[in-house]
Amino acid sequence: MRRAIIPAAAALFVSLVPAPAALARPPVKVPVAEGYGGAVATVDLDASKAAISVLRRGGNAMDAAVAAGAVLGVTEPYSAGLAGGGFMVYYDARQRKVFTIDGRETAPRAMTSTSLEGIPFDEGVTSGLSAGVPGTVATWDVALRRFGTMSLGQALQPAIEVASKGFVVDQTFYDQTAANAARFKDISSTARLYLPNGAPPPVGSIFRNPELADTYRELGRRGPGWLYGGQLGKEIVATVKNPPVTPGSTRNVRPGLMELSDLRAYRALLREPTKISYNGMDVYGMAPPSSGGSTVGEALNILEALPRVGLHEYLEASRLAFADRGKYVGDIPGVPLEELLSDGFAKERACLVGDTALTSPVAPGSPDGSYEPCAEPTGTATPVAQEGPETTHLVVADRWGNVIAYNLTIESTGGNGIVVPGRGVLLNNELTDFTFGPAPGDPNLPGPGKRPRSSMAPTLVFDGGRPVLAAGSPGGSTIITTVLQILVNRYEFGMSLPEALAAPRATQRNTAQTQAEQAFLDKYRAELEAKGHSFVLNPEIGAATALEFLGRSRIQAVAEPTRRGGGSAMVVSPGR
Known about the structure:
The chain is an alpha+beta fold. It has a single domain (32-270, 385-434, 453-574), classed as 4-Layer Sandwich (Glutamine Phosphoribosylpyrophosphate, subunit 1, domain 1), CATH 3.60.20. The chain contains 18 helices and 22 strands. It has helices spanning 45-56, 61-75, 121-125, 136-147, 152-155, 157-165, 171-184, 188-194, 210-222, 231-241, 260-265, 292-304, 311-328, 337-340, 343-350, 478-491, 497-502, 518-529, and strands at 3-4, 32-42, 85-92, 97-103, 167-168, 206-207, 269-271, 274-278, 281-285, 308-309, 392-398, 403-409, 419-420, 425-426, 459-463, 466-472, 506-507, 514-516, 535-537, 545-551, 554-559, 568-573. A hairpin with a 4-residue loop joins β11 and β12 (403-409).
């Protein structure tokens, strides 16, 4: 075993409790829980409670994940919702097999490689043009029919209750609303919902979304067809093509290209997972159009090819893997996935890692199946495209040994900022994950029916054929480095899983400077700058959730202790 180097030192949209004396204290979330019978970790207490309730009533991990995801659409509406998309990596204990579901949004058939060209990124976000064909509801439908025990209507009941009765506004919800207030006020339906009396709802107030409750209720009764070609779909298309801009607003809110036929054509897809062998374990992830599985996997392979692993090596492996991601990965035919994840390619890339930092952008390698002891890259580097920092991630395990890592998103914080009138649902801006161009040969240029490249990296780790760990995070392209660093912390540096999540983070994505949290800079900046690394502050990187099987049926669920307000870990039973 290689020696690891431990790092050195109209209708009523919202009901609020107005009197300050009546404001509620936001509920306390516990970031670590251990026990039996199943476990869950999400960013939100209501979502975790929903999942645990499902498990206690005899539902399985997939039932609980869908229930929790639907609740997050209520309590974390700026990160997830039924008009978004996502990816599931699921281990079915009965079949002893890992499955993945690709619920990534798609571009309308009218979108071309130049549809986003020349548009300022911010203007692209707040527009109908950025809205992809939603995949979340189709994901839930496939997941429950193939792997669950509950109907969609049953799985939506906890979310309906939370949307109807309301939840306590916390600091994170207030801050995210305030950060979006300028654009929310320019969309009449969004302003009515999220800016009551012209301002964000105060911390401690009760936020209700009865229109979303009705939307979920109707979806449960009518099924996914109500969205994919039915009345809800018609309303979404109408909103995309004619955004409800507030009278007098000067914001240029472009109309979108989505048609009802695009919704009818949408499918959530079962795909083969990515898989690598790492330190004797098997690591499963999400295949393209996600770049999470390929980039995390390649970086781990590079690290395994090195004689030692420290923070310098972690940053260099990530740098190299991101160079290859930009060149080769997208929703295109012929992604050289097998070669990107091969040991031969990893060794060829690992030979570039020395005692000093490489200069970014480094060029991509050649995953062509012909590998030399140390080949110099000859390709052209691709800049890291902008991605929204939001998204959310949850993990669930049940009493039968099923386990799921699930990323769901509407892309940027607040999606495209447009609420479907009368439905209480924010639309996504997922199509801004495409490269805007011009960029000849870029695998992530937009196209008709194409799925934008994602960085979501829901990940399962197996030892001896049995699941031992599940992890994932939000954070745009920092998702990949967050998951990678958690695995390095856990398996190279010997940290416990709670320590691995809480540790300060840095993210190197083939950029000239490495972004890092302040605590990371305080501890490691001097030693890493001595190796040629350059840093810039990123106040908060990721907001992970994870779980680990501790043996004898005991599970540890872990969420962030502080990032994004901290998360919520729960177990079915703390004792036997």
